[in-house]
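Weekly structure sync, notes
Attendees: PL, DS, HV (note-taker this week)

Item 1: Autotransporter outer membrane beta-barrel domain-containing protein
DS walked through the input record. Source organism listed as Campylobacter hyointestinalis subsp. hyointestinalis. Sequence as pasted into the shared doc:
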Amino acid sequence: FGGRSFSGLTTNNTINISGNPTFGVTTILYGGSSDVDNFTGNTLNIRTKSITVRYIKNFEFINLYLPNDIKANDTLLNLSTVGTVDNTNLSNSKIGVGVMDGDSPALKVGDKIILIDEPNATITPPTNMSNNISALQGISNSYEFSLAAVKDDGTISDDGSGNVKQIVATSVGKKVNENQKAILEGGISSSIIVSRANDTLESSIKDMSSALNTTRVNETSIGSIGASSTRSNTGSHVDIRSISLLTGVSKKANDSFMYSAFFEAGSGNYNSYNSFVSGNVKGSGDSSYFGFGVFSKFDMASNYYFENSFRVGQVKSDFKSDDFGNGNISSSFESKRAYFGTHIGLGKVFDIDDISNLDIYTKVFYTRVNSEDITMSTNDRYKFDATNSVSTKLGFLYNYKLKENLSLYTGVGIQREFKGEAKGRNISYNYDIDSPSIKGNTGSIEAGIKLKPINDNDKLTLDIGVMGLE
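Item 1 (cont.): predicted structure, written out as tokens:
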């Protein structure tokens, strides 16, 4: 019994059957037993096949989930009707079909599954039984099933009359679930948060140059912290809020060359938004990274300079969405991937007068987040291809000295992403899925203030700035 009462309601009860249970030949499954309402909202969920009971009664909803080992002509629920003849009345019930696992064998169009079989009595099928019903296989594939009441002579009863023995589901269509693209939005967040760390890297190189050129020392420590909130258009879009940290030790080898070894880390969270014909899919998750690297700067004649960097580390991310399928199916994953990045830059500082200058530069950045195989919580398996980001940045920075130890700066830059595509493949069923991309242009405006040492004994240099992206 889902519920039993001699005088009260027995409604909204649920019976779940899974695994490999064995019932007695006289077992009866009741949604409820009562002298009043014993039917409304009662649900029977069957997540296995080849189970046998005497009969079922008083269920408004009967949901049958196809297990991983299902094959054509298998039977999910057998009704034995041992002893007295017990006809099964499902006239007011609603039958649903679901596919349990995202890594189960694919069904073929035309495959028939016997949902309910009652060889010794008669089934009264649902009065309003849907002729066609959709079901998801994990989140990978969408199946369309045709439901039919089959009589003892093998013909279909269109109106539910006659000696109906079976309720049968036939696969009449299969298509790839387009909503899977949302999963790659979770994957591309790893690339975005690692690429955003380039801003902190650029700031740290400026800090190193400023500190070593103004403190008259050959070695110093540096530290940069940055926070950002950005929207990346990927065909849909991903909103990311993150904080990044870089700390290291810098050394001046001679009057023209300086370098630094550093540790970097960051974390953030994101929300992704996708719109499909079948509905909207919203996802969310967290990302974090840590790594090590080196960068250097070479000051050349005529105020030219050259800079470069290399970094390597690991980025973690997770993803969850409750919007897969019409039934709001929830699925999630966790990812751990290696990354590395490098950049080169060339610039020239033009002295305007004794208290101001203009720094014009161009830079090229490359970041790679390696591939990984992931398994969703629904057991769908995917391969995330390596994500390669190649971008160029052209900009200028205007510096103005207010006092000997205090200066202001402002700048404008434009960055072009040439790649940034997150490709992926469903390896459960061997097909590619639509790929989001962050390819495109980004404009930036920055401004800040620098506080330099007041005297030779003061080693502290501060740089506080803000940047806006579009």
